[in-house]
Design a protein that fits this description.
about 20% strand; globular; 18 strands; six-stranded mixed β-sheet; alpha+beta; 16 helices; five-stranded mixed β-sheet
């Protein structure tokens, strides 16, 4: 018997197999090195493209601000070239394969997403929106003889809506990038781009909403009548000031016409009271349902508008399709866009003097109420003519309106549900909506004059808010309101009676009486009120699950009072309260406690 003995492989075969193995290993190494080099080179090139895009974007923004639409259009094209190339450099199969490599992969994936979404934003939003600048904000959009061309607004809507969608999706995609394992530069890039895209998405949403409602409000779909309330901050109301002058504006196919003016003297409070929400009436009294000058006592502008329009229709007939409230400070911003307006006596109303002229000087210049009403009416008509007659720079006018809106000096309401649904989510919907929009930690401080005169130009107001975390996770929230009378010691005799008051409402001439009301956010707990360090009586109430506290303060000339409203936060972890307040004659900065 014999055994099978394995054959001995020839040495040449062994060497041949070894060479084959090393050849395979070499090919793999070359491929890996090549891939690394490929990804590295393309990553370096992409970095250069993104840096160039950043420089281009800065110039593009400057060109848009400067109104150089031609340069902006060219810059938008260059921006897209850079972002498109960056997306292409990070979007090939080798780059995708490298994304599975530990440590390095997540960073490569993040860079690809950043490049792709930036390209989507540049090509799908920034370039189209830059193109809109020529049609929406060009000189052709300037009002001519009271008419605004609504066609550019209608034509711009699809592009604006598409840009809003693109930017919203891009912001969401960048925000979804996992932060774990990201290198510092990549993490910083993600944070910066997420912030920029979020801001851009918000701005595009505002533009989209504006293009939804502007044509309708301008009468593109049929005529509209708007009641304008001119508020007087010399006699404070929650929304800004007492509505003392009124105008009815007719809008049809872009043409705006001032068809009627009125004053509080035209409205009798003797008719049947109109229905007002019981909770609001319990806080602010029944006057707003019967006196047109009190309709803005409530922060809910839908209530103010409903009451004012009903009073106007009862007096003059017709139908009011919307209500607009504006104060002299907002008017001063608009005059900055139109330039001065000249009145019949040769005097000028300018951006610098409008507030003082309308809130202070008018009462010394004109001795009786009829003359004062005539001055207010003439000022309103002249300003309306300047704004709608083509004197205003469109971009400056939009900026002025935006500033006034941000300061809650302009409020809008429409009986068109499609328009009102858009307004409801903006600062233009009134203080109540603005407070809710600020979130679950927003407090509102609302001031209403109880003097029955025009003493509030001499009322200095300071406000602050802060929170101290408690052991149970909630926070003790403090809202401080400091009121100081800067009236002259002899205000009772040196100021005109319409300013100093006559004592009719129980307040001595020269004194300033103010009702201070604080609306807490839903669910917060009322913990009392102090005045000058001592607990005081106050009027507590509840409106829509919000604790409301009201205190009346009367100040003699030179006197000061500090009110401190105490609350407990609704939820654990709420330690960053915000404060919204009645628009005053002078802007104030809310302090932190």
């Amino acid at each position: 018997m014999s055994e099978d003995v394995p054959a001995v492989e020839p040495a040449t075969a062994t060497r041949r197999r070894g060479r084959l193995v090393w050849l395979i290993v070499g090919v793999v190494l070359v491929a890996v090195v090549g891939a690394v080099v490929w990804v590295g080179v393309r990553g370096w090139l992409a970095k250069g493209e993104l840096e160039a895009a950043a420089v281009t974007a800065e110039k593009l923004q400057a060109d848009i601000v400067a109104g150089d639409t031609a340069a902006a259009a060219d810059g938008a094209d260059k921006l897209v070239d850079h972002t498109h190339e960056a997306a292409a450099l990070t979007g090939d199969p080798i780059w995708a394969l490298a994304e599975i490599v530990p440590v390095v992969g997540p960073n490569l994936s993040a860079v690809r997403v950043l490049s792709t979404q930036l390209d989507a934003a540049a090509s799908g939003a920034i370039r189209p929106l830059t193109g809109l600048a020529q049609s929406v904000f060009a000189e052709s959009f300037r009002p001519v003889d009271g008419r605004i061309d609504v066609e550019p607004l209608v034509a711009a809507r699809p592009a604006a809506h598409s840009a809003r969608t693109v930017l919203t999706d891009a912001a969401a995609a960048v925000g979804a990038i996992d932060d774990d394992g990201l290198l510092g530069p990549v993490a910083d890039a993600k944070t910066s781009l997420a912030t920029a895209l979020g801001q851009a998405a918000g701005l595009s949403a505002t533009l989209d909403d504006a293009l939804v409602i502007a044509p309708v409000m301008l009468g593109a779909d049929g005529p509209r009548n708007y009641l304008v309330l001119f508020q007087n901050n010399a006699e404070l109301r929650t929304a800004g000031g007492i509505p003392g002058a009124f105008a009815l504006v007719h809008a049809e196919d872009g043409l705006l016409q001032l068809v009627r003016q009125a004053s509080t003297a035209d409205f009798s409070p003797n008719g049947p009271a109109l229905p007002a929400p019981a909770a609001m009436a319990a806080v602010f009294g029944d006057g707003m349902s019967s006196h047109i000058q009190d309709v803005t006592m409530t922060p809910d502008f839908t209530v103010s508008a409903d009451l004012a329009s009903a009073m106007w229709e009862r007096k003059f007939g017709g139908t009011v399709d919307g209500v607009i409230a504006v104060d002299p400070v907002a008017l001063s911003y608009l005059l900055g866009a139109t330039g001065p307006v000249t009145l019949a006596d040769g005097s000028e109303l300018t951006t610098e003097n409008a507030v003082t002229s309308l809130l202070v000087d008018v009462y010394t210049r004109f001795p009786d109420g009829a003359a004062q009403d005539a001055f207010f009416a003439e000022s309103a008509a002249a300003s309306f003519k300047a704004i709608t007659g083509g004197a205003a720079d469109p971009k400056a006018l939009v900026s002025a309106l935006a500033r006034a809106g941000d300061e809650n000096r302009v409020a809008l309401w429409s009986n068109d549900e499609s328009v009102q649904s858009v307004l409801a989510g903006t600062t233009l919907a009134g203080l109540d909506a603005a407070q809710k929009e600020l979130g679950p930690e927003a407090y509102g401080v609302y001031l209403n004059d109880a003097t029955g005169a025009k003493m509030d130009p001499y009322l200095d107001v300071a406000m602050a808010v802060g929170a101290v975390p408690r052991d149970d996770g909630r926070s003790d929230v403090t809202v401080t309101v400091t009121l100081t009378s800067t009236a002259a010691a002899d205000a009772a005799t040196s100021y005109p009676p319409v300013v100093a008051g006559t004592g009719f409402y129980g307040v001595a001439p020269g004194q300033i009486a103010t009702n201070v009301t604080v609306f807490a956010p839903a669910g917060a707990f009322d913990a009392g009120v102090e005045r000058d360090g001592e607990r005081v009586e106050y009027a507590p109430a509840v409106v829509d699950d919000r604790a409301v506290s009201s205190v009346g303060v009367t100040l003699a000339p030179g006197e000061k009072a500090e009110l401190v409203f105490h609350y407990t936060s609704a939820e654990k972890g709420q330690s960053e309260p915000l404060l919204l307040h009645t628009p005053l004659m002078k802007n104030i900065t809310v302090g932190s406690l």
